[in-house]
Write a structure and sequence with these properties.
Length: 337
C-alpha cells in the first residue's frame, strides 16, 4: 500500500484564481480495490488544517481506508469553508469540510451536507487588553472572516449585547491576516477561533476573551460537517457511498483512539502535537453511534432549523429552509448498512 502527497492533478479553476485559497496541497493515493464498475473512484476533497477539518482524513490515509473502499483521494487545504463551497460549485472539488458559520451556504442550495462531524467549542470574540466587554467594542475595529463561525459568534455576541455589526467598524479579513492584525494591534478585536488564537496569544498574552460558543449553546449549536457538490450527490451515488463509508470508519476509529488521532492529525498538517492536542480540547467528538442516533431521531434537523433561524435573522438567508433539502442523512445511514 502506498500513500503520497503531491500537488492535485486537477487545478482550481480560473474562478478561484488569485484568491490564494489553497495553503497547501496533499494527496493520498493507492491502487487498491476498485468501484463496482472495476475502476478506482477518483475524489477531490477539501479541508481546513485543524483537528475538526483534518482528523478523519489523517485517519483515512493512515489506516488505508481510501484503498479499502477503492478511492483515490486528492486532498487540498483551504483557509475556510465558503471557499470550498465555491470550489464545489465549479466542480474543482467533490467534497469538503465546513464549520457552522458556513452552513448557510448548503441551506441556500449551494451544496449538500453529507455527514455531521463534531461540535465546535473553539470560537471566541477576543479583544486587545483594556477592552472589557462586548459593549466596549462600539466604534472599534473588529476583524472577522466573513461567512465563518467567527462571523457567527461575533453576530451572536453583539446581539446579546443589544448591538449589531453597524455599531462596530467591521473589517473582513482572511484568517492569516487576522492573526497578524491582532498580534500587531492593527485591529481592536476579532471574531475568531483556536488554534489560531493560540498563536496570537504568544504575542498578546493578555488578549481578552469576551464570548465563546458555550455562551450560546442553549439556543444555537455549532456543528461541523462534510459537504459535497450538488452534482456529485445527484449524479454519482457510488462515489458518495464510498466516501461516506470511509468517513464512517474514520469516525469510529477517532472515537476509540483520540491520542493516536491527534498525532496523525499533527503529522498530516505538519503541526506540533501539543498544538493539535490544545485544538482538540475545544472539540466535542461525536462517535458513530451518536451520529446515527441524532440523524435518525431528528436532533440534527433541530440543530439545522435553529441555525436557519439565526441565518435569517442575521440577513444571510432570505427564508427558513427545510433541512431535508440539504442534509442527506439518509445516505449517511445507508453507508453503514
Amino acid at each position: 500500500m502506498r500513500f503520497s502527497r503531491t500537488f492535485p492533478r486537477r487545478s482550481l479553476g480560473a474562478a478561484l484564481a488569485g484568491l490564494a485559497l489553497v495553503l497547501s496541497v496533499g494527496a493520498c493515493s493507492s491502487g487498491g480495490a476498485a468501484g463496482e464498475d472495476g475502476d478506482t473512484i477518483e475524489v477531490t476533497f477539501g479541508y481546513i488544517p485543524d483537528f475538526n477539518g483534518t482528523s478523519l482524513l489523517a485517519i483515512a490515509e493512515d489506516q488505508g481506508l481510501w484503498d479499502k473502499h477503492g478511492v483515490d483521494a486528492t486532498t487540498s487545504s483551504f483557509t475556510n469553508g465558503p471557499l470550498q463551497i465555491q470550489a464545489l460549485g465549479t466542480g474543482d472539488l467533490d467534497f469538503g469540510y465546513i464549520g457552522p458559520g458556513a452552513f448557510w451556504l448548503p441551506a441556500s442550495g449551494q451544496a449538500k451536507l453529507v455527514a455531521m462531524n463534531t461540535l465546535g467549542r473553539a470560537d471566541r470574540v477576543v479583544a486587545q487588553p483594556g477592552i472589557e466587554s462586548v459593549e466596549d467594542l462600539a466604534g472599534k475595529t473588529v476583524a472577522v472572516p466573513e461567512g465563518t463561525s467567527g462571523d457567527m459568534i461575533l453576530t451572536l455576541a453583539l446581539e446579546e449585547a443589544g448591538m449589531t455589526k453597524e455599531d462596530v467598524e467591521l473589517v473582513p479579513m482572511e484568517p492569516p491576516a487576522i492573526v497578524a492584525a491582532l498580534s500587531s494591534g492593527q485591529v481592536d478585536a476579532a471574531g475568531f477561533w483556536y488554534p489560531s488564537l493560540a498563536t496570537v496569544k504568544e504575542q498578546v498574552p493578555d488578549l481578552v476573551e469576551l464570548a465563546d460558543n458555550t455562551d450560546f449553546e442553549e439556543t444555537v449549536a455549532f456543528p461541523t460537517a462534510f459537504v459535497a457538490g450538488n452534482d456529485v450527490v445527484a449524479d454519482d451515488a457510488e462515489k458518495v457511498d464510498a466516501v461516506l463509508k470511509v468517513l464512517r470508519e474514520a469516525i469510529a476509529y477517532r472515537a476509540e483512539n483520540m491520542d493516536e488521532t491527534i498525532e496523525l492529525t499533527a503529522d498530516f498538517n505538519n503541526l506540533d502535537v501539543a498544538d493539535v492536542e490544545a485544538d482538540a480540547a475545544n472539540v466535542e467528538v461525536l462517535d458513530l453511534a451518536e451520529l446515527d442516533k441524532i440523524t435518525e431521531d431528528g436532533t440534527v434537523d433541530t440543530w439545522l432549523s435553529g441555525m436557519n433561524e439565526y441565518f435569517v435573522q442575521a440577513g444571510t438567508l432570505d427564508a427558513p429552509v427545510d433541512p431535508a433539502e440539504y442534509y442527506t442523512g439518509d445516505l449517511f445511514l445507508k453507508a453503514g448498512e
